[in-house]
């Protein structure tokens, strides 16, 4: 669920500048360390395509920032709670779409997109955020937390299959 940021003031740099600053440091090292684990040339090519997507005109909204398995409580197939709100804050509305890539397979993801009314630009930025978030866990948690590494792999598969 997206909530308007309302009266929250975000100090410079802007959200777009933060994305631009974070992308190289979050995508570069994981790609460098993922040889033999991932299709690095393909992922690097996709990263090159999405890293400079324009921020868009929409104002920042309140965002959890990383809805993914492990941050959700589920009972009888329904989300009943959200954990780990330490990153909650104003952000690009597209950041709220990462859950579509971390949690949902294609058919249901398309239905979610339609229900949310996400335009092409916002949807692609959401996919870019999911790519950024999924790269690190694959290599970082390979030995210490294999389920988390698999979550990253699954998200990357979804991101690449979509385009």
From TrEMBL:
Keyword terms of this UniProt record: Kinase, Transferase
Gene3D superfamilies: 3.90.1200.10
Signal peptide: none
Membrane-spanning intervals of the chain: none
Cited InterPro entries: Aminoglycoside_PTrfase, Kinase-like_dom_sf
Pfam (any one): APH
Protein's recorded name: Aminoglycoside phosphotransferase (APT) family kinase protein
Organism: Streptomonospora nanhaiensis
């Amino acid at each position: 669920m997206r909530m308007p940021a309302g009266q929250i003031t975000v100090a410079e740099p802007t959200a777009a500048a933060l994305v631009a600053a974070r992308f190289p440091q979050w995508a570069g090292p994981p790609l460098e360390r993922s040889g033999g684990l991932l299709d690095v040339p393909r992922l690097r090519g996709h990263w090159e395509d999405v890293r400079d997507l324009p921020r868009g005109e929409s104002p920042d909204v309140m965002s959890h920032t990383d809805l993914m398995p492990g941050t959700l409580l589920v009972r009888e197939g329904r989300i009943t709670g959200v954990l780990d709100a330490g990153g909650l804050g104003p952000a690009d509305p597209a950041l709220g779409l990462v859950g579509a890539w971390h949690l949902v397979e294609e058919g249901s993801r398309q239905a979610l997109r339609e229900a949310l009314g996400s335009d092409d630009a916002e949807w692609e930025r959401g996919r870019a955020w999911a790519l950024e978030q999924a790269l690190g866990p694959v290599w970082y948690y390979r030995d210490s937390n294999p389920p988390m590494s698999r979550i990253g792999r699954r998200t990357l598969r979804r991101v690449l299959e979509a385009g």
